[in-house]
Prior knowledge:
Beta-alanine binds at residue 62. The protein contains ten helices and nine strands. By secondary structure, it is of the alpha/beta class. It has a six-stranded parallel β-sheet, with helices on both faces. A three-stranded antiparallel β-sheet has the order 7-8-9, with helices on one face. α6 (125-140) packs across α7 (152-164).
Amino acid sequence: MTSVTLRVVETPAELRQGLSGAGRVGLVPTMGYLHEGHAALIRRARAECDAVVVSVFVNPRQFGANEDLGRYPRDLERDLHVAGEAGADLLFHPDVETMYPPGYASTVSVGGVSEPLEGTSRPGHFDGVATVVLKLFNLVQPHQAYFGEKDWQQLAVVRRMVRDLNVPVEIVGVPTVREASGLALSSRNAYLTPEQRGRAVILSRALRAVQEAAAAGGRDTASLRQAGLNVLTQDPEVDLDYLTVVDGDMHERGRVENDPMTRVLVAARMFGVRLIDNLPLWPEGDPA
């Protein structure tokens, strides 16, 4: 299948018909309001697959009672433009009743990697993520699925689910796309004014400060974390949820090991918007 005209499908039957005869299928799961970060995922899928499906579904099961489900940004015309320009073949845009029909009663829960950090701050969030992702895998039956590294813990949860449940999908993590300032692209950045986005760059500055402390020989997690906190305290608007260093299994250790999967993660509210970001502790891979 070659990408000529982006086709929108809304039901599983339309989806299967649209993929009839396709070779290697790539899936990019999204909640819409697509930006350059999503486009990078789609382009990667386009380069590696014969057919590319982008799903656009604001999944109510991954939002908490006091979160922003009702005001989460939605713009299907924008999504069609971004997905089409990046090379998608199909845009799967189901409604809630299609994904969760009357009587729906099943949930996927992934232990361990889902429990700390976002799992603590947003109870039930990763159950909702795992459930909808597995449903999408079953509907699309992709060979590869593409996820941004910005949602690092989500990526870890999906990888663990695929491994544990023997799901025949290769999970591809794609590096975070950033604004020129360094701010990680996110659909929720739409809630911020340009001046607020400029100040939100402090989160990535804090992550880089932790990287620099590790490059200087720091291995004690508390001291590495303090290097980032010294940056975050410079702006009183930062309402910190967590800043931490974790290994590939999302475990927080007293000292970091020589593991290239070690990551520094941050979550904070600024101007009423919850933002997350992360970077590898050692940006060049294995520590010296």
